[in-house]
Amino acid sequence: MIKYLDELKKEDLKGKKVLLRLDLNVPTIEGKVTDINRIEGIISTVDFLRQHDAQTIILAHIEDKDGNLISLLPVLDYLNGYFPVQFSKTYFDAEANAKLLEMKNKNVLLFENIRFNPAEKENDPEFAKKLSQMGDLYVNDAFSVSHRKHASIIALPGLMPHYGGLLLKKEIENLSHVFNPNHPFVFIIGGAKFDTKLPIIKKYLERADSVFVSGALAHNIFKELGYEIGTSLYSKGDFGIKEMLKSNKLITSVDVTVINGDKIEFKNPNEVTKDDCIVDAGPKTIDQLRNLIKGAKTIVWNGPLGNYEAGYKDKTESLAELIAEETLNGAMSIVGGGDTLASINALNIKDKFSFISTGGGAMLDYLVYETLPGIEALEI
C-alpha cells in the first residue's frame, strides 16, 4: 500500500525539507527545452508542496538524444517560468549545504543532474544515505524512471518517510485500467528491440482481443514467416515467434513502405527484396488499423509504426488521429512512448486521448509486471 503526497496536511509539510525525485529528462536543442510534456506533469506536485509551505529539493537527471549526460540548466530556466527555483551545481559540499540551510518555506532548490554521480546508477547505499541527510521526507514523482534500480529510486525511500507524488498516483490509477479492461481490447506495439518487447507481446496475446505489432518488431515476424526483409532493422535471436504465430490475435502490417536507393514505394511484406529497407507501414495498413480499432472499448498504444526519427512520420500520425477519433466514440485510449507522444504533439491533439503516460519503458514494464522497483520501494 502506497501513501501519497495528497494524504498529507499543511502541518505535516510546513517547514519540512522534501526530497522530490522527478524525471526532467526532456529533449533540448541549443540549451532550450523543446518538449514540455514531462515538465508539465510534475508542476501540480511542486505547487502542492509550495502551497503546504514545504521546502522542495528536486533530484532529477537529463540526457541528450545520444544518451549522454548533460546539465539541467535548460530545465532550470523553464521551471523558473512557473515558480522561483534555486540551483546547486554540487552535492554534499559547503556550497550545497549552505543553500540547503538558507532554504525557506515555499522555496525550491534544483540539484544538478543526479547521474553525474556514478553512485546513483550503482544504487550505492552510502550515496543514498548522504542524500537522505539533506531532507526530512521523500517523494517519488518520477514514474518514467521507476523501472530503474537507482539509489534515488530504490535505496533512498527506505531511509526516510516516503510518499508517491501526484503524477505517480495518476500513472498508476490510469494504467491499472489495462488490467481489467473493457472489451474489445486492442493493444498496438511498435518500435524496435524485440527482446525487450517480448514480455508485453506474450502477456497481451492472452489478455487482449488483438495485438498489432509494427515497426522493426514486425520485421522479426516477417523473417519468421520466411519473407525477405532486405536491409531492414531487426533483432537477432530466437524469441519464440513461431509459437506466437499460432495465435490469431497476433496481427502485423498488410503493407510496408520500403526504400531502395532514392526510390520509395509501398509493397506487401512478402514482396520485399534483398536490397529494400522497410522504414514504415504502408497506406493499406492504416485502413487495416482503422477497421481493427473501430468499436474498441480499450486501446493501448506504445511505439511508432516505422522509423519516426528518420522522418517517416505520416503513418504513425495517421494512427494517432485514428485513436483520437475512436476515443471520441467512447474508447478508453492509453498511450505512451517518446515517438508516440511526438506524433501526438505534432498534431496538437493531446487532449483527445484518455491518458498519455510519461513513461515509455516504464509504462511497458508496469503493464507487464503490474508494479515497478520504484513503486515497490514505496510500499515498504
Descriptive report:
This protein is of the alpha/beta class. The chain has two domains: 172 residues, 3-Layer(aba) Sandwich (Rossmann fold); 168 residues, 3-Layer(aba) Sandwich (Rossmann fold). Helix content is 37%, strand content 18%. A six-stranded parallel β-sheet has the order 5-6-4-1-7-8, sandwiched between helices. The chain has a six-stranded parallel β-sheet with strand order 11-10-9-15-16-17, with helices on both faces. The longest helix is centred in the first third of the chain and has 15 residues. The mean pLDDT is 95.
CATH superfamily caption of the largest domain:
Phosphoglycerate kinase, N-terminal domain
Helix fraction bin: 25-40%
Radius of gyration: 22 Å
The total domain count is: 2
Q: Please report the number of helical segments.
A: 16
Determine the strand fraction and express it as a percent band: 15-25%
Give the neighbour order of strands across the main sheet.
Answer: 5-6-4-1-7-8
CATH class term of the largest domain? Alpha Beta
CATH topology of the largest domain: Rossmann fold
Overall average residue pLDDT: 95
Task: Give me the CATH architecture of the largest domain, please.
Answer: 3-Layer(aba) Sandwich
Straight-line N-to-C gap: 8 Å
Shape: elongated
Structural class by helix and strand composition: alpha/beta
Q: How many β strands by DSSP?
A: 17
